[in-house]
Design brief:
This protein is α/β, with parallel strands linked by helices and 581 residues long. The protein is 43% helix and 13% strand. Helix 3 (80-92) crosses helix 9 (206-219) and helix 17 (389-406) runs antiparallel to helix 18.
């Protein structure tokens, strides 16, 4: 392993792997490497480009901005899914369309698609092993009540994985099977037929892009030759977040001519729920590949770097700026109380970014309300209670649209609203979406503090075909649950607010950070190598530039003392009642 700085150049014509911790300036290094390649390479011609792949759209925008307009025409910067769709799916999908029942004429990009009752019903009725279920009509029982809920959750968590023979298969997650765990093995035998119902209407999701790309390049190797001819250099950022399919595709591209470089940090691998595997980056090897590491931390103060180095065992980061700031503080008590105390400490004019593990906590902080009495699993319970998928989709999309708009994210707000008017002309879609969104925003105070049933009554006139209620779980839920509590649980698509989940803050940095963990185990028994939860909180800690705060409702005295001594963290208990003078 060769240690380099974030300003060093490396050999252009050799595969490379760079490990760089948080704040190491890996984007700075990557941009410089791209610029040096454009300037010095003898293999870049007018029609050939550098492919630069990063994990998020925010990452794409950051790299493009730093590259500058003078060389962006020599570099194609995109996410892996966008790249594969543009260069493999779009031109070559017809080669396998008949086999997989894909309606190529209707395919227009890729998106996320939730299981729908009508599609699931059609799949079950035609399942090739439907007669293997206990009774000939037992598949119908899967379409009702809790069994349908379990089935929809299970189908919403399908993944493509390699089997022991190296074949790519679509599989379910047994942990998500719930009450239908005994029949999932039978159902799993024909999952591709379930996908084909979507594909026949032109709908392909993000994972389908990886699946089809792998099938195409392995069956038609000339596609790889075309890619290599277009892109003599293929650089990938945030590789710790890739999954095994992406890794296989990268290795196939690297077999001839194209120079592949990967950059990442195993301690920041936090996307297992999307199929990412920390081992993929740790074990990534190519023939004649050189491995480098950047040990600088260009972001944080000395006190924060000391904390990060104590949590992490595999590398020790150097203090690039060598700036002393404040000692981190652990607050014991209410999150809102801690936030107000921090505002006083830092100054009312200073921005405090809060980073949380889950959406309800982040959203509650947006509104500066405590989560006391709010069920963080309310969104899941909503989906379980309302077994009518059409009504469920309308209500959820409307809530998301309203809440996105309230944060100024009108693009995603209207996108959510438009999807509810798909049967209308494009002009009517836009007009109806804008009109309804404006009405809901103007009436917000009339339903925000009231039961979800009040919100349903407001929107019902716009969706006359939306189902009503009989006595049962759905009606009870709508009457018992407040709109504002359900709104707290939604996920914001592109959250750039001051209060985010840790996942949505990854790749960013902030002057002052308040981390809101669910436990202190990541400090008491840190294990970044084997525990993704610990890596998530490590990422949260490492976003801070100058001041770092942590808040937890309660902690044992022995743990408080351990954290204070082990990490040089000041502990302040907000639950202690001040004694009178």
């Amino acid at each position: 392993m060769i240690t380099i700085s974030s300003s060093d150049h490396i050999h252009l014509e050799q595969h490379f792997k760079v490990i760089a911790g948080p704040g190491a300036g890996k984007t700075h290094w990557l941009v410089n490497h791209i610029k040096n390649t454009v300037k010095s390479s003898l293999r870049l011609e007018k029609s050939r480009k550098i492919a630069c792949i990063t994990y998020t759209n925010i990452g794409v925008e950051t790299i493009m901005k730093r590259l500058g307009t003078s060389i962006t025409n020599r570099v194609e910067v995109s996410t892996i899914h966008s790249f594969l769709y543009k260069h493999i799916i779009k031109p070559y999908l017809p080669y396998i369309a008949e086999e997989f029942d894909v309606n190529v004429l209707k395919v227009n990009g890729h998106d996320s698609f939730s299981p729908r009752y009508s599609i699931v019903k059609k799949w079950l009725e035609n399942h090739r092993r439907v007669n293997d279920l206990v009774h000939p009509n037992s598949y119908k029982q899967l379409l009702y009540d809790k069994k349908l809920d379990s089935l929809l959750v299970w189908l919403g968590n399908l993944q493509y994985k390699y089997d022991a023979e190296g074949n790519l298969k679509l599989v379910g997650n047994q942990e998500k099977a719930g009450s239908i765990s005994k029949v999932t093995e039978i159902l799993e035998d024909d999952l591709i037929s379930y996908k084909k119902i979507f594909w026949a209407t032109g709908k392909i999701d993000h994972d389908d892009v990886l699946f089809f790309s792998y099938i195409l390049i392995t069956r038609h190797p000339f596609i790889l030759k075309v890619l290599r001819a277009k892109f003599p250099y293929f650089f990938l950022d945030e590789v710790q977040d890739t999954n095994p399919i992406q890794t296989k595709i990268i290795k196939l591209i690297a077999e001839e001519e194209t120079i592949v470089g990967v950059i990442g940090d195993p301690a920041q691998s936090i996307y297992a729920f999307q199929g990412a595997n920390i081992e993929e980056f740790i074990n990534f090897r190519l023939e004649n590949m050189t491995e480098y590491q950047i040990l600088e931390n260009r972001r944080s103060s000395n006190q924060i770097i000391d904390l990060l180095n104590r949590v992490r065992k595999d590398i020790v980061q150097d203090k690039y700026k060598n700036v002393d700031k404040h000692v981190p503080i652990l607050f014991i008590g209410d999150t809102i109380d801690a936030y107000k105390k921090i505002k006083n400490l830092c100054g009312e004019d200073k921005v405090i970014h809060t980073l949380s593990r889950d959406n309800p906590t982040a959203n509650a902080l947006k509104s500066q309300v405590t989560l006391n009495g709010v069920d963080s699993k309310l969104l899941t319970k909503f989906k379980e209670a309302d077994s009518n998928p059409d009504r469920q989709k309308i209500i959820l999309n409307l809530i998301e649209s309203v809440e996105f708009a309230r944060l100024g994210d009108y693009k995603n707000a209207l996108e959510k609203m438009n999807s509810l008017f798909r049967d209308y002309s494009e002009k009517e879609q836009v007009n109806n979406s804008i009109k309804l969104l404006q009405e809901l925003l103007s009436k917000y105070s009339s339903f925000n503090e009231k039961p979800l049933m009040d919100f349903y009554s407001v929107v019902k006139p716009y969706f006359t075909s939306m189902a009503g209620f009989r006595n049962g779980a759905a009606r009870d839920f709508y009457n018992a649950s407040l709109y504002k509590h359900l709104a707290i649980c939604i996920s914001f698509k592109e959250d750039t607010s001051h209060h985010r989940t840790i996942h949505k803050a990854k790749g960013d940095e902030f002057e002052n950070v308040l981390l809101v963990p669910n436990s202190l185990d990541f400090l008491i028994n840190p294990n970044l190598e084997n525990d993704e939860e610990h890596r998530i909180y490590y990422v949260g800690l490492s976003r801070a530039i100058n001041r770092l705060f942590i808040v937890i409702p309660k902690a044992l005295k022995k743990h408080q003392k351990f954290i204070e001594e082990q990490y040089n963290i000041k502990v302040e208990d907000l639950t202690k009642v001040p004694q009178p003078i």
